[in-house]
Amino acid sequence: MKNILLIATGGTIASKDNGNGLTPSIDVNVLLDYIPVIRQKCHVTGISLMNIDSSNMDTSHISSISECIMNNYNDYDGFVITHGTDTCAYTAAALSYQLINLSKPVILTGSQLPIDVEKTDAVMNLTNAFIYSCEDISGVFLAFSEKLIKGTCAKKIKTKSFDAFESINFPYIAAIRNNIVKYNINTIQNIMTSDNGFHIKTDMCTDIAVIRLFPGMNYNIFDYLNSSCRGVIIEGFGIGGMPDNITEHIHRLTVNGICVVVTTQCLYEGVNWEIYEVGRNLTKENVINGKSMTIENLTMKLMWSLAHYKNITDIKDFMEKELYHLLSVLQNEHFFWNSSFNLIYKHGKYGMAYKIYFCNDINLSGRLRDGKRADQLLLLLIQLQYRQTGDESHTFSTLYHAHEGFHASQFVGYLTGLCGL
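Request: output the structure for the sequence above.
Response:
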């Protein structure tokens, strides 16, 4: 059996109500007592590294987690980290950059309810995290609500529900069905490698700011940023649009050697500066394209790169690289969908027609990447299925649950057949 180290950091999963609200106070060994079955799968050791509310998590705490993994790296086959959900995505992203040449699984997890509460999600999430940690995978991941999410793509999108996290602009790595791990991703390539074996680089530059634009905003704030920051992330509108009168402020920032990252306030599909004039103006400046990365990932990535690269060109090159390259997607297993689909249905000539707006850049069949084309094909598929079955409710139910796992032979097979791929 594999040796797995549980690193406890606090969070809701380890909290109790002391009369003044929930406070992290449960010891790591008590956490393990709630999942005795896991000792039949692996040898487990626990460390209580810290016991804090994740709102108090900062870069020094994250560095302590990396150091703990480094100090125990040779003695364990995998690592599970319990963490509060509110900043878990930030920590997952930061660890993805701090842990260099990582060849073992590092699985973060947490819960929406404390582990000692009736009907808690903590037992399932912690158990699944250990199951994933025993797999022959490497990298930093988040295990939550049966899904395994790449650390740099995790985002908390719900405050109370058990399916609180989503994988943004990247497929889920895997999901657990009936205690069996079903993989969605066949191969991913990590760019955080070197010839020096496993090691850590924990320095982080905290002299950054994240600015979310809004109509009528006073841009004088950029004068302050010019004198106090080394990096600025700007959340623009839509596909990356910027007001005309902000360009001069961005120009002054870049001239002064400040790294400016432009991203979007939208979750899905990322930035494209080529469509609108306001976007093309940004390409004339030495601005970093945030692409389709989450704000949590961009924040930690910028902090890390500012601490380890000296000039803007090197920082820009690193920032615009994806940490993982998706090399292939399994087509002979369940294809797990992001749950952020808008299902819009209306009565029409054929009784009921459904349209799915494809909300991310998942490579459906290994060859289909164009969102609009996928949208058209999905609509055609829905109409075809309805005409074949004549059952409105069955058609809706089948497609509505697609994001929970739709077998490739039923779904991707339809698509590839329809378009002759």
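The longest strand covers residues 42-52.
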